[in-house]
Amino acid sequence: MWSLKKSPWVFHVNTGACNNCDIEIVNCLTPKFDVERFGIKLVGSPRHADALLVTGVVTAQAAPRLREVYRQTSKPCVVFATGACACDKGIFATGYHVVGPVDKIIREIDPTAIIVYVPGCPPKPEAIISGVVQALSVL
Amino acid sequence: MAAVFKARAKGKDKEMSWPLNVLFWVVVIPGTVVLGLIASWIVRKVSALVQWRVGPPLFQPFYDVAKLMGKETLVPQEAQQTVFMAAPLVGLAGVLLLSIILWRTAFYQTAFVGDIIVVIYLMVLPSLALILGSSASASPHASVGTAREMKLVMGYELPLVLAFVVVIIKTGGKLNLAEVAAQAPGLSVSGMLAFLVALLCVQAKLGFVPFDMAEAETELGSGVLMEYSGALLAVWKLMQAAMLVALPLFLVTAFLGGFATALWLGLLEYVLILVLVILIKNTNPRVRIDQAMKFFWVYCGLILVIAIALAILGNAYGIKWL
Fold first, then answer.
1. d(Cα B184, Cα B201) in Å, to the nearest integer?
2. CB-based contact (8 Å) between A30 and chain B?
3. pTM of the model
4. Which of B28, B146, B160, B212 pairs with B244 at a CA distance of 20 to 30 A?
5. B57/A37 Cβ within 8 A
6. ipTM above 0.95, yes or no
7. Domains along chain A?
8. Is the C-alpha dihedral spanning B277, B279, B282, B285 positive or negative?
9. Do B228 and A48 touch (CB under 8 A)?
10. Is the CB of B53 less than 8 angstroms away from the CB of A45?
11. Nearest-CB residue to A39 (from B51, B60, B141)
12. What are the pLDDT tens digits along chain A (139 aa)?
C-alpha cells in the first residue's frame, strides 16, 4: 500500500526488555534523527499504529499482552523485532521466565504476520531507521 | 433557504454571476478540507523548524489520511457502536457547516440576523462529538480523556462567549456577521483584550498545547481517540484539519474584519492567527486541567469583565478606540 510507505505510524511495545533498546528507539524519535521527515510518528495507541516496535525477550507475563496488542493493531501492520533479545532471545535464552522470541508468539496467532528483525544489543538508532526504511521499501 | 441568504447587509452584498456562485458551492467543502490539511502541515513544519528539525513533506497530512482510509476499522466489543461510529461524522459535519457560513460571509458579505449565535452553537459541536465518541469507547484511558475534555469545554466556553459579547456590544448590538466584520471591533482596547482571550480559547478548542490534556500522549496514550482506528480515525483527523480553517476564520471575521475590506487582507490575518497559535503551541508546556479551568474562569474572566466595562463606556460616551 503506497500510503503505508509514506506515513508509517509506530507504537512501542516492551515485552520485558532491559530498557536499552527502548532508549535507542526513543532516541530515534528525538530531533537529532528527525524521523518525522519520513512521516514516522510515535502514537499512543496500537489501534493507530502501522508498525509495532517490539523490544525484549517475551516473558511469560508479557506473552498474552503482546498477543492482545498485536490483535488490536489494525492490519496491515509490520512487527519490528528490535534488538538481539527480540530476534532470538539474546543473553536471556536459558531464563526460566522466557517464553519465546517475538516471532514465535506472534506467529501463534497470525502465521502470515510480517516480521522484520533488527539485531543489535542495542541496535543503534541509525540501524533502527535503516531497518524501518528497508522494510518499507519492500512492503 | 435562498431567501435567508438574500438578506442584505448594509448594501455591501456582492452579486456574483451564477457560474462563480456554482463554483463557490462546489469548491467550498473540499476546499476547506484541503486548506485544513495544508494548515496542519504548516503547523507541523513550523514546529519542526522551531525545534531545528526538517519536518514532514508538504503532502504528509494527505498521506496520513489516505493511509488511514486503507486500514482496518476496529470497533471495541463493549463500545456503544452507533454513537462510536456516528460521533466523528457529526463532528465533521458541524465544522464543515460552520466553515460554509464563514466562507459565505467572507466572499459574499451575506449574512442573516442571528448568525453569530448559530456560529457559536456550531463551534461547540466538534468538542461535543469528541466527548460523545470517546465516552462511547468503553476504555478507561478514553474515559479519563472524556472527563478532561468536558472540564476543558466548561472552562473555555464561557470566556469565548463573553469575548463575542464584547464584539456585539462594540458594534451596537448587531447580531449579523457581515455587519460585525464591516466594523472590525478588534481594533480597540476592549476589542484587543477580547481578541487575546478568544485566541486562547481557540487554542484550547483546537486541542493544542498548553491545553491538549484530553489527548495527552505521554500520560493517556492517545486519550480520547484511543479506540479509534482506520476510516473513523481518518474522519477525526479531517475534522481537526477543518477546525484549523474554521476557528481562525471566525476570529478574523468577528474581530479583525479582514474579508470585508479585501480578500488578501483577510487571508493575511488568517495566516497571522495561525502563526500565533503555532508559536503559543511551541513555547508552552501542557497544563493540568485544574490549572486550565482556573486560568479560564479567573484570569480570562477578569480580563473580559474589564473589556466589557470598557466597551460599554466607549459606547456610552462615543469613544471609538476604547
1. 20
2. no
3. 0.91
4. B146
5. yes
6. no
7. 2-138 (3.40.50.12280)
8. negative
9. yes
10. no
11. B60
12. 788 888 999 999 999 999 999 999 989 888 888 888 889 888 888 999 999 999 999 999 999 999 999 999 998 899 999 999 999 988 998 999 999 899 999 999 999 999 999 999 999 999 998 888 888 887 7
